[in-house]
Specification:
It is a single chain. By secondary structure, this protein is of the alpha/beta class. It has a domain of 178 residues: Aldolase class I (TIM Barrel). The chain has 13 helices and eight strands. Strand 7, helix 12 and strand 8 form a beta-alpha-beta unit. Helix 1 packs parallel to helix 3, helix 1 packs across helix 13 and helix 8 packs across helix 10. It is globular. The relative contact order is 0.16. It binds phosphoenolpyruvate. The site of phosphoenolpyruvate (PEP) has 13 residues, from strand 8. Its EC number is 5.3.1.1. It catalyses: D-glyceraldehyde 3-phosphate = dihydroxyacetone phosphate. One of its GO terms (molecular function) is triose-phosphate isomerase activity.
């Protein structure tokens, strides 16, 4: 869709120290032309401990690469040992934050209520949430993926104004396709991404729904990205494993 700028976001997960982060960001930016970085928004999502280094690289060399964090606290500050608050991320120049990744839902028992609070915290502190939804294998085998993902979307966006919904990036990540090498077919991706946009349209109107970028995530590689990006309701990709290799991620960003 020409009105929505494609977004490629690299989720590094719990990989790379700050020295490796610096190398990867520099290499990534050097592998893409200014036009490519303008046509396709390119974002990295490093661990918290790398963010200051990424900020220094991006600011110092005026790299056209955005960055953000993989999680944030629903609270703005206070007695929450080990957590990181939205204002800390904004201060480091982050523009994005992942919310509700399936690994956090599983490892840290994050439920829809927490995910909703985190989406609200992100928006309050000037960060664009990349809200992840997706079904596990059992739900997919029952054919309930659309209902499941649409319900997760509603729960995560509860209480938001349509102006706020317009700022959210949604990522459809079928859990069975994350880190498994099993990519959803382009038709599978379109089925759910299209349904999510329809659900948004029902909730906040078609004009707002048309503005929202919906990403696909799950074993995206340079070899399968073009077919996924050809789907009308897929506006980008959330890339895990393949984003740890600068040349491979750059190829993904050069998908057109
Ligand atoms: C992810 O963790 O968001 C993801 C899509 O991982 P991978 O690309 O490795 O499947």
């Amino acid at each position: 869709n020409p009105t929505r700028r494609p977004l490629m976001a690299g989720n590094w997960k719990m990989n790379l120290n700050h020295l490796e982060a610096n190398l990867l960001v520099q290499k990534l930016a050097a592998s893409l032309t200014a036009k490519q970085l303008t046509d396709v928004e390119t974002v990295v999502l490093p661990p918290f401990t790398d963010l200051r280094t990424v900020q220094t690289a991006v600011d110092g060399d005026k790299l056209l690469v955005g960055y953000g964090a993989q999680d944030l606290s629903p609270h703005a500050s206070g007695a929450h040992t080990g957590d990181i608050a939205g204002p800390m991320l904004t201060k480091l120049g982050c523009t994005y934050v992942v919310v509700g990744h399936s690994e956090r839902r599983a490892d840290h028992h994050e439920d829809d209520t927490i995910v909703n609070a985190k989406v609200q915290a992100a928006l309050t502190h000037g960060l664009t949430p990349i809200l992840c939804v997706g079904e596990g294998l059992e739900i997919r085998e029952l054919g309930n993926q659309v209902a499941h993902c649409s319900d997760q979307l509603d729960a995560a966006l509860k209480g938001l104004s349509s102006e706020q919904v317009a700022q959210v990036v949604v990522a459809y990540e079928p859990v069975w396709a994350i880190g498994t090498g099993k990519t959803a077919t382009p038709q599978d991706a379109q089925e759910v991404c299209g349904a999510l946009r329809q659900r948004l349209a029902g909730n906040v109107g078609p004009e707002t729904a048309d503005q929202v970028r919906i990403l696909y995530g799950g074993s995206v590689k340079s070899s399968n990205v073009a077919a996924i990006m050809a789907q009308p309701d897929v506006d980008g990709a959330l890339v895990g494993g393949a984003s740890l290799d600068a040349e491979e991620f750059a190829k993904i960003c050069r998908f057109p």
